[in-house]
Specification:
It is globular and about 60 Å long. The protein is 38% helix and 19% strand. Helix 2 links the parallel strand 1 and strand 2. The longest helix is centred in the first third of the chain and has 18 residues. It folds into two domains: 132 residues, Rossmann fold, CATH 3.40.50.2300; 187 residues, Response regulator (Rossmann fold, 3-Layer(aba) Sandwich). By secondary structure, it is α/β, with parallel strands linked by helices. A seven-stranded mixed sheet has the order 12-10-9-8-6-7-15, with helices on both faces. Keywords: Signal. Pfam families: Bmp. This is Nucleoside-binding protein.
């Protein structure tokens, strides 16, 4: 009897199962984990090491800020990439690795960016400090000359010898523009001061930069500034008991007794805004040149050696710049020969500033051809 009952029970169960189409109870259905959303890959290439304490370091701080603000983005970087053919190879490798946005952070990468961008129209390229664009290539920079002018006021008020040293990388418009803005700031408070320029023809060479600063100190400079990527010139000034003004990032930690302030970059917000626009499909190729009011350029905190009256003078002029009441390259402006290049009340256009190939009055130096 037990066997018959068991057989009948099993038969009923099988018929029921077949009638239901063989479906599994919901509790026993296979549980599939949702696929992890693939992160947007963004890459950066740097002309120097991220530990240079200057240009590449500042860009890498911006990259880290981007990752912090956008967890759905995965970033990577390659440092110490020479300008020229090597950069074309590296850019190509980054695209092949799946990067959809690439930030090329040095002027000399410009032609390589344009070449690679033509081959990969679905990838967006952003080139720092250049002037060539394409449908998938934009340029970006900040009006660092505004911060340079302000640091020039500090230097002009500080110098006792009336000789200020400027260690400069390459004679391109970007660097010449910075030297001119700095000199105009110096001369606005000290018409007798001159800015002596030495070229190194390198972006990153700590030893060469430091030696250039030493030569300027030996020539009588008692304040040193630079358009270079390391704090070598700052350290040279400190070793001689003189003052200095840093560039790219706050260099006071490297030479605390010398650094009065630094003209600094803040790339992070720009990187976040740009990546968001590309993700949302609203990005269009453009030539961004952000002012100080965008906070892409600024001054680092003042060192203890900067007097209060000088701080107030600088802050007042900074406020005029922020409010658009003052423009650095407003005439009258003369060149080294005393010839008037910008008439009184006239403002230089962006095109003119981006093609600077002459020094203002007060610069002691030449522009190599």
């Amino acid at each position: 009897m037990k066997r018959i009952i068991s057989f009948v029970f099993m038969l009923v169960f099988v018929v029921a199962l077949v009638g239901c189409g063989g479906e599994k109870p919901k509790a026993q259905e296979d549980k599939k984990e949702p696929a992890a959303k693939e992160k947007l890959k963004v890459a950066f290439i740097y002309v120097g090491p991220v530990g240079d304490g200057g240009w590449s370091y500042a860009h890498d701080q911006g990259r880290k800020y981007l990752e912090q603000q956008m967890p759905d983005v995965e970033t990577s970087y390659i440092e110490s990439v020479p300008e020229g053919a090597d950069s074309e190879r590296v850019l190509t490798e980054l695209v092949e690795k799946g990067n959809k946005i690439i930030f090329a952070t040095s002027f000399g990468y410009m032609d390589s960016v344009i070449k690679v961008a033509q081959k990969y129209p679905d990838v967006k390229f952003l080139h720092c400090s250049g002037y060539k664009t394409a449908e998938n290539v934009g340029t970006y920079f900040g009006r660092m000359y505004q911060a340079r002018y302000l640091t020039g006021i500090i230097a002009g008020k500080t110098t006792k010898s009336n000789t200020i040293g400027y260690v400069a990388a390459f004679p391109i418009p970007e660097v010449i523009r910075g030297i001119n803005a700095f000199t105009l700031g110096v001369r606005s408070v000290n018409p007798n001061a001159k800015v002596k320029v030495v070229w190194t023809n390198t972006w990153y060479d700590p030893a060469a930069e430091k030696e250039a600063a030493k030569s300027l100190l030996e020539a009588g400079a008692d304040v040193i500034t630079q358009h270079q990527d390391t704090p070598g010139p700052q350290q040279a000034a400190e070793e001689k008991g003189k003052f200095s003004i840093g560039y790219n990032s706050d260099m006071s930690k490297m030479a605390p007794k010398a650094v009065m302030t630094s003209a600094v970059w803040n790339w992070g917000p720009y990187y976040v805004e740009t990546v968001k626009a590309i993700k949302e499909g609203t990005w269009k190729s453009s030539q961004y040149w952000g002012p100080m009011s965008d906070k892409i350029v600024d001054l680092a905190p003042y060192g203890p050696m900067v007097p209060e009256d000088v701080k107030k003078l600088v802050e007042a002029k900074k406020q005029e710049i922020l409010e658009g009441k003052f423009d650095v390259f407003t005439g009258p402006i003369k060149d080294q020969t005393g010839k008037e290049r910008v008439a009184a009340g006239q403002k230089m256009t962006d095109a003119e500033m981006l093609s600077f190939d002459w020094f203002v009055e007060g610069v002691d130096g030449t522009i190599p051809k």
